[in-house]
Design brief:
The chain contains two helices and twelve strands. The protein has 211 residues and is mainly beta.
Length: 211
């Protein structure tokens, strides 16, 4: 018995319309439509005719799903910002396009974190760590999120990509539209922290008053 190939990690959705929440709105005007099944590739152009490549044609070119860097790693405090940063860069995928050896370049143009508490954070940038921003921990950022209650949550990153193609090392040609790739959900444990007054450093003197 031959097992079916489960496909790449994460999910890839093709967007053929023009508005994906606030992200698509920065690039297009209109409504987006998600294609859940790949459409048949376009027929090869006639000799001497123009080549028009669509997102459907590059369905076999699979970009690597993005990852999320979280601060603090894996946990958060009720009422304080947890920082989320996208680990996603431009990447080139090789394959066959319309019967010819080709490359497709995917470039991130938008980011969206869906939190299981119902919040959605959208950004045109991947975000940055607190150290990169030269700010203190638990400082609010453009991609941070504040949890209101304790519990176990998840955060799922989806990155919007533009696409370009080229044959045989020629110049890059743009493909109309954008596509979205989702990474694996990141578990987040949210708890509370009590503040107490101590007499000195509890790490140096754990039995001291207040420790």
């Amino acid at each position: 018995m031959v097992e079916e190939d489960p496909g790449p990690r994460g999910s890839t959705d093709v967007w053929s319309g023009d508005n994906w929440q606030q992200l698509c709105g920065a690039n297009f005007d209109g409504d987006c439509s998600r294609l859940t099944q790949p459409a048949p590739p376009s027929a090869p152009p006639k000799p001497g005719g123009p080549v028009v490549i669509t997102l459907r044609d590059i369905a076999s070119f699979r970009p690597t799903p993005p990852a999320t860097v979280m601060e603090p790693k894996g946990w958060a405090v009720v009422g304080l910002p947890a920082n989320f940063v996208a680990d996603a860069e431009a990447q080139v995928v090789s394959g066959t396009l319309l019967g010819r050896t080709a490359e497709v370049r995917f470039t991130p143009v938008g980011y969206r974190w869906t939190h299981s508490d119902g919040a959605v954070v959208e950004s045109a940038s991947p975000g940055a760590t607190w150290s990169e921003l030269r700010t203190k921990e638990f400082t609010e950022t453009a991609t941070s999120h504040v949890y209101a209650s304790t519990g176990e949550y998840t955060a799922t990153l989806e990155v919007v990509l533009s696409a370009e193609y080229r044959f045989g090392g020629s110049g890059w040609q743009s493909i109309a539209g954008v596509l979205a790739v989702a990474g694996d959900p990141v578990p987040v444990l949210v708890g509370e922290v009590d503040t107490v007054l101590t007499n000195g450093d509890c790490r140096a003197n754990p039995s001291g008053p207040g420790c």
